[in-house]
Amino acid sequence: MLVRKFEATSMRDALSAVKRELGVNAVILSTKEFPASAEGMPKLFEVTAAASVTSKAGAEARTRGGEDVTPARNNFDSDVSGRLAVLGETMATARQSRLIEGGIYDLKSLVLDLLRQQKSGANIPPHVFAIDRTLTAAGVDPAIITELNRHLASLPAPASIVSIAGDGIEKYYEDLAMRWLMKRIKIAPKWTNVSGMTNVHVILGTPGAGKSTLISKIATAVTKKDRHKVAIISWDSEKLGASEQTRIYSKILGVEHLIISRAEELKPAIMRLRDVDLLLVDTAGRNPVDTSSLVSLEIIKNQGLSLEFHLVLSATEKQTLQDRTIRHFSTIGISSVAFSKLDEVPAWGDVFNASCKWSLPLSWLSWSHLPSDVPERASRESIAGQLFKVSRED
């Protein structure tokens, strides 16, 4: 592949030079226009073009003899080869495209957040400003805070409610804000049992999100509190000893445990455990930027099974990574989102954002890394309360 740059005082002259030097089959890669300078340099046009070695030889032959010595078929082949070579050199890989897409999304979100913050900071009533500051510190999405500010500012002025609220005007508006926020939180229904059916819940997430620990906790809660029969399937063919912790805890808890390594083994395993009430499938951690990691999930989704997919997010991950993970798994179909490691974060803004921004129901909230600790079923009251630092009841 031969790549050259040509300059001329007009675009027509530049293209003529390309045709003369590289032949009629040359591929135009880019064009630039340089304005005239103050020092007297004229306006220039730059054309970057490419041609295969074959087409270059043909061009030289035409220049020497004034006759095209290359057969038409060779010209066509060289043209196609040249264009394919240029595409191969300039086309972004699938991984680069995903990185670019993610970067554009993150940059767009950052710009929008800055604009919303500037807009929301203007003309905020004093009784609303404290709420704005609290929710911002909690990590609530700025767009949601802006919408809440408008709602609260549209309500009766403090002077008209002083007889009702007295000195607790800020508390009055805080209660209104909590009610507004709770209406925007989606809660997944309890994992109830359908008579005569095995309810299969597939747990998804990135490496280290806490899937296996949460599964052990759910199995404990459902077995001891709800008195249902539970079984666990560990599906991880990549990480050595990945299912060992789940196997040991299943033995302690007294629930049946199976290990599979391929997607095709899931259906026979479910049929073997069809007498249980609740079946939990622990999957391998998947990279949120690797689309090939979803292939096996698509396979089990198309096996005619009644499955629900639940995504586990670590509360310690940055919101940008949480958003990327949700986007990654959303093609499979997410029934609910569960949060782990909540004891390691000071605020719950990301928990609220995941439900509100993505319109996803929340199912489980988990704190400690110990499998014996019982998780809490998500509720609007507990999440909205945590945004305002209201202690949850154990």
Number of domains: 3
- The CATH homologous superfamily of the largest domain: P-loop containing nucleotide triphosphate hydrolases
C-alpha termini separation = 70 Å
Strand order of the largest sheet: 6-5-7-4-8-9-10-11
Number of strands: 11
Helix-strand layout with pairing:
Elements: E1 2-8, H1 11-22, E2 27-34, E3 44-51, H2 53-65, H3 72-90, H4 94-120, H5 126-138, H6 142-153, H7 158-165, H8 169-182, E4 199-204, H9 211-224, E5 230-235, H10 244-253, E6 256-260, H11 266-272, E7 278-283, H12 295-301, E8 307-314, H13 319-329, E9 336-340, H14 349-358, E10 362-365, E11 376-377, H15 380-387
Parallel strand pairs: 4-7, 4-8, 5-6, 5-7, 8-9, 9-10
Antiparallel strand pairs: 1-3, 2-3, 10-11
Helix pairs in contact: 1-2, 2-3, 4-6, 5-6, 5-8, 8-15, 9-10
Short description:
This protein is an alpha/beta fold and 394 residues long.
Give your account of this protein's structure:
- By secondary structure, the chain is α/β, with parallel strands linked by helices.
- The protein has 3 domains: about 1-90, no CATH class; about 100-180, no CATH class; about 200-385, Rossmann fold (3-Layer(aba) Sandwich), CATH 3.40.50.300.
- It has helices at about 10-20, 55-65, 70-90, 95-120, 125-140, 140-155, 160-165, 170-180, 210-225, 245-255, 265-270, 295-300, 320-330, 350-360, 380-385, and strands at about 1-10, 25-35, 45-50, 200-205, 230-235, 255-260, 280-285, 305-315, 335-340, 360-365, 375.
- An 8-stranded mixed sheet has the order 6-5-7-4-8-9-10-11, with helices on both faces. Strands 1-3-2 form a 3-stranded antiparallel sheet.
- The protein is flat.
- It starts with a strand and ends in a 7-residue tail after the last helix.
- Residues about 55-60, about 60-70 and about 390-394 have low confidence and may be disordered.
